[in-house]
Amino acid sequence: MVQTPAYFEYFAHSYVVDSTPDGGLTGRILNWKTGAFDDDPEHVTDVLFDHGPDIRSLDRERFIRRTEEQRQRYLRGDGPIFALYQTIDALWDAAKEENRRITKEERALIDSLYRRTFRMWEDEFARRAAGEPPTFTFTSVLAR
After folding, report:
1. In the chain, pLDDT over 70 holds for what percent of residues?
2. In the chain, how many H helices and how many E strands?
3. 70 and 117 Cβ atoms separated by less than 8 Å
4. Which helix (H) or strand (E) holds 77?
5. Partners of 69 in the beta sheet?
6. CA atoms of 97 and 68, how far apart (whole Å)
């Protein structure tokens, strides 16, 4: 029996396996152009049973971090999510400028900010799915 949700990195994409109402399994993969998770059940068997160098299991915290790193890398826009991404960039830039590693406190702050942005994206996509208008706009660097 598979505990769901189960989190993975699948060829550099965040991938989640969930249970279906009929007791089956389905999967969703992060779309780098939209920032949303798209239905993609065809890789469930691969991530559960065929772990190779490009597929790895993640705990929820690492999954959130990887998802937000990908959104931060590929999406651009205005609003509170992107302001938080700028704060994270500033922390990394300061460490690089000072020729040092990120401190434990900075890492904890970055992880906290990523948990916050992850929740903000989830809330935004839920609003949009319910037919509400977007609260902000964004583009993908891949859509150019």
Report:
1. 99
2. 4, 7
3. no
4. strand 75-77
5. none
6. 23
Report the DSSP beta bridge partners of residue 39: 28
> How does pLDDT run across 3-24, given as a tens digit for each residue?
999 999 999 999 999 999 998 9
Task: Give the span between the Cα atoms of 31 and 101, in whole angstroms.
Answer: 31
Q: Is 42 exposed, middle or buried (CB count within 10 Å of its CB: 0-12, 13-18, 19+)?
A: exposed
Match 């998770």 to its residue by tokens: 37
Burial 98-136 (b: 16+ CB within 10 A, else e): eeeeeeeebeeebbebbeebbebbeebeeeeeeeeeeee
DSSP H or E stretch at residue 107: helix 104-129
Q: Residue 104 corresponds to which tokens in the numbers above?
A: 């434990």
Q: Which residues contact 28 (CB under 8 A, 6 or more apart)?
A: 15, 16, 18, 37, 38, 39, 40
Confidence at 144, pLDDT banded by 50, 70, 90: low
Question: Which structure tokens are listed for 105?
Answer: 């406190």
